[in-house]
Amino acid sequence: MKQLIECVPNFSEGNDLSIIKQITDEIEKVSGVMLLDVDPGKATNRTVVTFVGEPEPVIEAAFLAIKKASELIDMRKHKGEHPRMGATDVCPLIPVSGISMEETATWAVKLAARVGNELAIPAYLYEYAQPNQERNNLSVIRGGEYEGFFDKIKLPEWKPDFGPTVFNERAGGTVIGARDFLIAYNINLNTKSVRLANSVAFDVREAGRVKREGDPITGKVVKDAEGNDVRIPGTLKACKAIGWFIEEYGIAQISMNLTNYKITPVHKAFDEVCKSADRRGLRVTGSELVGLIPLEAMLAAGTYFLQKQKRSVGVSEAELIQIAIKSLGLDELGSFDPQQKIIEYKLRKASDEKLIGLNLRAFADETASESPAPGGGSISAYVGSLGASLGTMVANLSAGKRGWEAQYEDFSKWAALGQATKDKLLKAVDEDTRAFNKIMEAFGLPKSNEAEKKARTAAIEAATKYACEVPFEVMQTAYGILPMLKEMVLKGNQNSITDAGVGVLCIKTAVRGAYFNVLVNAKGLKDEAYAKEIVTKAKVLLQENHSACDAILEEVEKAIA
């Protein structure tokens, strides 16, 4: 797997788009880096930039962007709502795939060293890149901000990890590190009061608020035996939050950093803020996402709100995302385009869904053309996806059937399984064609000398094995949905029993069609042991599927006879 890391530098300029463009131009000129998002904020006077790529080009792009920001942004003139200490205030690296957090932290250290040594900008490490636990928290490092750092940097405990111990008057300092995926998320309130917004923020953020005697705002701070402030923790773990007023929108917001969205997902943060706001006579009107969000987080939000409505969660990915957008009010302040705001969608290439992105007629025309792909393997996967879709339809109809409310959760779970199976088989439609193309590419490799012949033979063998594995996985995936189809035939909405029956026929066809592809590709393998093993497993699976399908179809016949 290719090593991919994401870089999300925050630059202290959110109004002058020409400056922002010059900085992002530096990123885009580095080969192997994909610029995913540029999100300027006027009131915060800050722009969050997101790009991704393999480590080396990402580090090069980050360095060039930090260098350009130091040349264009004069911190002596900077004003904005967001805490900051430099032209490039913070530059985190996040592991995306094929790379560990430890490796990512090593790259962060390399970047910080280069920034400190070559640009003479004081650079501090944070989170996983910082071994000193007393100074690995971003808010602690940034305490005092730009104005306070001229004195802070002189303290021995705040000597930069890299760079001079004299604060850079024009560029300020920067914080570079490695962290988990962070969701920058703002929740909108129907007030202009920063005091009220902060009260809500203190209710929910992990750090909570200082405990006071009597009045929670003006009362005397309670101290512990050692003289430290006693704190009342907030309701949300892995959440940092403050309240602020955004002039361009004319509202106060709760500005959040969700540092681990698996501990505190966006929908939980939203609901907690709603509860706190309601207690204070406020109302949440919507929310705003700064930068990108993982697909998993959006799907989890959509699922959560459907469950609150006691509706089936077995709906399409697109519908789950739309439910999340509307429930969280992500489109209140501006349009929310999932293709631009969800990281996996931004990374997705058009070639990843070349076939399933076609309409029905275009797909049939492409199949009927003189090109050998898509062929039987892709069609088998597609037919399997239709079988899963029919079963999912029956499950959703059953979950929503009046009088069947007590069975809603069971049918909803079956529908969710059907959706997941459908999506996996749809991906296999294009994957089977890619597998075929890999074989063709391997046969096209040069063979002018022994070394090239050996490499070509190895490539053909590897591609052929993969061309066996893809249809075998289609067999397994399609077969795995039969228990759901059986349940729909026996216990689902009987008005749709024939739909479930047709779904079973689709699965029977899909498994047998994929089996043919396993056999024909295995014939071309030199590794006889591997070929024998996968063909044997495929035959067993085919027989089990055939028997199971026929048994379910008999039940359909009985029911409609």
Question: Could you describe the 3D structure shown?
Answer:
- This protein is α+β, with helices and mostly antiparallel strands.
- Helices cover 52% and strands 14% of the residues.
- The protein has three domains: 175 residues, Formiminotransferase-cyclodeaminase, Chain B, domain 1; 165 residues, 2-Layer Sandwich (Alpha-Beta Plaits), CATH 3.30.70.670; 211 residues, Up-down Bundle (Four Helix Bundle (Hemerythrin (Met), subunit A)).
- The strands form three sheets. Strands 1, 2, 3, 4, 5, 6 and 7 form a seven-stranded mixed sheet that branches. A four-stranded antiparallel sheet has the order 11-12-8-13.
- Helix 8 crosses helix 9.
- The longest helix has 36 residues.
Unreliable stretches, pLDDT < 50, 5 or more residues?
A: none
N- to C-terminal distance: 53 Å
Oligomer: single chain
Shape: globular
The whole-number mean of residue pLDDT values reads 93
Largest sheet geometry: 7 strands, mixed
Tally of alpha and pi helices: 18
> How many structural domains are formed by the residues?
3
CATH homolog superfamily of the largest domain: Formiminotetrahydrofolate cyclodeaminase monomer, up-and-down helical bundle
**What structural class should be given to the helix and strand makeup?**
alpha+beta
